[in-house]
């Protein structure tokens, strides 16, 4: 018996981009869009009432659905033949309308519902937190296993200069995550400390998918640390002993706290940090913390991912680490061109450096 074909790669790509709230989506081609099975797949995966536990904002849903419907309409050349061949069931108003337009009745009904809902202004919507799901194309999962993804409630459209950076997942974290997916041995069965964890993307990746023994997600912002348990919950890690959140202020002594030993005396094998070098004023404090971590755990592996928004700041980071006795090794892991990305999706227009730091001597 012939097995049914799996989802088309174009449809998969569109779905993964949609769930990451990408602004510019790669819509499936016309030949696919006019097919009932394609429309039904899109409806069941993205737009039915039960499709998503954490759907995108209503404004985003409506914008994408309007464009999708318009593309379906324009994909049909011979309307008379299309309607006569249509397998859609003419059972109610929406179904009859869908047949006449060559569009899945569920998609039309969902658009009608969205149009009836009050929408926040674009300015208000930009400030609201949204559920964002990042598909992990770098992981190969066993057959019939749920697709690997990380879901975060975050301020997706926050700009890098606007407020608390820990409120969204940045490109350097996504890129470092792809690198770790290609080299899971770096964290497998290891105890990991993430500095400047923000939304917790990397910590969740290590704890849920890469087999880390334990992950300590740290940040200097109390508000960010308080939000991390929600990120853990969204990814099925609530109550898990594999990951925990803690406040850690760079430049402040790790020893001499209420605990007799920092982190309960537990070892740290790997330190990760993404987009934690963007502010030159905090680099000395960051490096001081790295020095203390190395003094406590001499064999620790430190991996930093940095988006080069400002070349001078990145050079400052390298200079301060060199003065502190660190050798900085640049990892050869180029960004996948944007047109070839299958998830997560991030810009390829600005360099992202992945560096390994090793204490010399």
TrEMBL record:
> In the record, what terms sit under GO molecular function?
S-adenosylmethionine-dependent methyltransferase activity
Against InterPro entries, the record matches this protein to: Methyltransf_16 (IPR019410), SAM-dependent_MTases_sf (IPR029063)
Q: Which CDD domains does this entry report, sorted A to Z?
A: AdoMet_MTases (cd02440)
* Gene Ontology CC, one term: cytoplasm
Which Pfam family, any one of them, does this sequence belong to? Methyltransf_16
What name goes with this protein?
Uncharacterized protein
**Species of origin:** Thyridium curvatum
Its taxonomic path starts at: Eukaryota, Fungi, Dikarya, Ascomycota, Pezizomycotina
């Amino acid at each position: 018996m012939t097995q049914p074909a799996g989802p088309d790669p174009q449809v998969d790509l569109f779905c993964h981009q949609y769930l990451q709230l990408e602004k510019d989506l790669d819509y499936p081609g016309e030949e696919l869009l006019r097919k009932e099975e394609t429309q039904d797949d899109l409806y069941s995966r993205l737009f039915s009432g039960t499709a998503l536990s954490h759907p995108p904002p209503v404004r985003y849903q409506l914008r994408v659905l309007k464009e999708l419907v318009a593309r379906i309409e324009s994909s049909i050349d011979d309307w008379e033949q299309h309607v006569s061949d249509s397998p859609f069931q003419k059972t109610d108003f929406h179904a009859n309308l869908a047949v006449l337009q060559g569009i899945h009745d569920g998609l039309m009904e969902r658009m009608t519902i969205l149009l009836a809902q009050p929408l926040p202004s674009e300015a208000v919507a930009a400030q609201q937190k949204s559920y964002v799901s990042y598909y992990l194309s770098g992981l190969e999962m066993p057959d019939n296993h749920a697709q690997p993804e990380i879901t975060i409630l975050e301020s997706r459209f926050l700009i890098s200069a606007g407020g608390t950076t820990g409120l969204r997942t940045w490109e350097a974290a996504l890129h470092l995550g792809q690198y770790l997916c290609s080299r899971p041995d770096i964290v497998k069965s290891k105890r990991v400390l993430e500095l400047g964890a923000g939304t917790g993307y990397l910590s969740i990746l290590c704890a849920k998918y890469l087999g880390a023994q334990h992950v300590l997600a740290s940040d200097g912002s109390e508000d960010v640390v308080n939000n991390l348990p929600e990120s853990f919950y969204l990814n099925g890690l609530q109550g898990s002993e594999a990951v925990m959140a803690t406040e850690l202020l760079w430049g402040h002594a790790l020893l001499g706290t209420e605990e007799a030993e920092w982190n309960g005396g537990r070892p740290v094998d790997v330190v990760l940090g993404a987009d934690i070098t963007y502010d030159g004023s905090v680099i000395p404090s960051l490096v001081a913390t790295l020095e203390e971590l190395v003094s406590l755990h001499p064999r620790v592996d430190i991996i930093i991912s940095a988006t080069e928004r400002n070349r001078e700041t990145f050079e400052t980071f390298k200079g301060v680490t060199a003065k502190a006795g660190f050798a900085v090794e640049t990892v050869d892991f180029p960004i996948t061109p944007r047109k070839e990305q299958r998830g997560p999706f991030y810009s390829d227009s600005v360099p992202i450096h992945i560096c390994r730091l090793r204490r010399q001597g």
